[in-house]
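Standup notes, structure subgroup. Blocker cleared on the alpha-D-glucopyranose input:
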Amino acid sequence: MEILGKTTKHSRAIEKRIEELIQEMTVAEKIGQLSLVNSIYGKITKPLRQTIAEGKIGGILNEVDVNVVNELQQTAVEESRLGIPLLVGRDVIHGFKTIFPIPLGLASTWNPEIPERCGRISASEASATGINWTFAPMIDISRDPRWGRIAESFGEDPYLTGVLAKAIVYGFQGDDLSSPGCIAACAKHFAGYGACESGKDYNTANIPENELRNVYLPPFKAAFDAGAASVMTSFSDLDGIPATANEFLLKQILRQEWQFDGFVVSDWEAISQLSVHGLTASDKDSACEAANAGVDMEMVSRTYADHLADLLIEGKISQDRIDTMVSNILRAKFKLGLFDRPYTETSSVNTDKSHEYLEAARCAAVQSCVLLENKHNILPLSKDKLSSIAVIGPLADDRYEQLGTWIFDGDIELSQTPLQAIKAFMKKSAEVNYCRAMATTRSRSREDFGEAVETVRKSDVVILFLGEESILSGEAHSRADISLPGIQNELIEEIAALGKPIVLVIMAGRPLLLEKARKNVDAILYAWHPGTMAGPAIAELLFGIASPSGKLPVTFPRAVGQIPIYYNHKNTGRPATAGSVTNIDDIEAGAPQHSSGDTSFHLDIDNSPLYPFGYGLSYSEFKYSNLRLDHDKIKLGESIRIEVELTNTGECEAEEVTQLYVRDLVGSVTRPVRELKGFKKLRLRPGETASITFELSTDDLAFYGRNNKLVTEAGRFHLWIGGCSDTDLRAEFEIIES
Ligand code: GLC
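Run returned:
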């Protein structure tokens, strides 16, 4: 209780300091705190310095020169009347100098320790340059791989995203936000951005409230429960009201229901874009809408700076509203300890931890790769049995592209590429023959195919490094066709014709269409964009130093026409069954009109995904047995204990991610056919058996019901356990009325 007392006392002290400060501040100084200004990358212009000295800027973003940051902080603290320090923001998404796998790769680890470590190291590296706030984690549920920003997400599932969000927020913020090396997190983009129509970035999102509450909001609640200090509004128009002016989101959900006490920042110029959406007729109206809806800080656009004072005089915004906005920002600055320690030590003792950080990035990359195919166990390659290896493709030796999207500050000098690592691993024991074959992943030129063919002819095995350059995913980089870009499939076909074993390693920021490729290769290792240590990690996996353990956090479609396709879908009134699916080629000529199969499927493609959520192969084999529940009936408020035996029946030590899914068979609203409710990652030696236990409370089975209130309803449930969302190891239980 003491700790709680201490925290409460600390909170009370902060609130008192905020109140005192608010009393002292002029209207101009208050409005100043609501502005987040883009730095000019290392230059301090006279106007910027002057505005800070007048106390009219609350924060800057995109300044990473520690001396410039200290100078700007000094202007704020020592020249402005009240000496309020600045927030210093930056997109530190999956690393700062040392780059970890993109978030979709971090999610593929199904290991919360990995994003936590990524957050901690990122915060340590970033804070050394004066950054005290990151615009991460991005926790938009993403069911559409056409969307470029799926790369920045933790995938399609609310539970997995929530667990990883908590972990990385803790990594960024630590136990005490004011401790050196910690930075404030910013959960984004609130909310529903990932449902942008046709996967086009910034596009309209229409999400029924029940779906919003059951799918898109839970990860944000998890991030706030973990103490995330801020939240960023989404660019998107949500059901006709852009998130940046959406009172339902920013007041009812965030403040009234969740009691969030952090601050809300708009996305880049999102307030001024309200008039572009057509919600307002002017910047002044936009400022009024956003401020009254609950956006505390304006990123880059100047509508608050230009119009809030007039809106206050005109009575269109209250003094109380402005004071609340300012208080939310000051609270973060106090929690960060900026009033006590506004400057960044530059002469800190050289605690070079780069080796430790690179090791953490390597470990993350090893666990992020997902083995999708391994025909006749071609992998792992045996070093002793190879005399020559062909390493081919535009992503085999590209220190920049392997880092992925959102790596402004990544140090490519640290990058170790797969080609380098394979050469280092093989040493003299085999010849490594390299051919880039394509200038970029988008190339349409066959001019180097001949060299590639020659390279393959003189080699025992081919390792292809293909996929997407980093710029083909991320913000504003959606694709309508998510095939391998350029003529990569043609390259694969030409090499496959030579009859050598082919291992395909893919680096990409999204699921890609792989039907063609997988017919022509023997193994596929999906590495996403694995970051600085891509090389050593991939080499370790290819040569069996480690076994792949990654599992997909997002479904892989067979064709774009299947999108959106995700595992936790509804059953519909006419679900497709194996027997009900008609293949377009089987329909006889002149067929009379009939409701083919009467169920929900496409005539021209297999009804299943290419690879399902939770899928990933290992070099070993795992068997689940003896699934048992301690009760088959429980009352509201009780829990059920689930146990299963997991055995490594293979030849090598490996890790398995045991996943727990449930289905609520009947609800006051229709419920998904499966929902992830737990997972555990375990390493087992060959022959070893472990008992794995889950506790499931009736609260864990709560959902937003017909009146959009959180409920747990009595009724029957199915429960599955296994190494993928399509597992068929099933049990049943029932919640009975108390
Ligand atoms: C961008 C992104 C947002 C990012 C911000 C600052 O437009 O939408 O995720 O944090 O601007 O760079």
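Discussed briefly. The mean pLDDT is 96.
Next: hand off to the docking folks.
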